[in-house]
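[#protein-structures] MJ: dropping DUF397 domain-containing protein here for a structure pass
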Amino acid sequence: MRHPDVITGFRKSSHSDQLGDCLEIARTGSGGHAVRDSKNSAGPSLTVGGAAWSCFVDEIKGAYAR
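AK: finished. structure tokens for DUF397 domain-containing protein:
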């Protein structure tokens, strides 16, 4: 059974810059994602559902394709 509040290990993209200006993401137990600032790992995270995350990623991919 998955618990919706459980957040697995955060990770950042291999495309992140060396200055540390990055976001980290992690999956939640309910199929969503949590996003946080890599410079403040003890700080809060923004959690979004799976459908919202998919829309976000699709928009980002579309912006880079233009």
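MJ: nice. The chain has one helix and three strands.
AK: one more thing. The mean pLDDT is 85.
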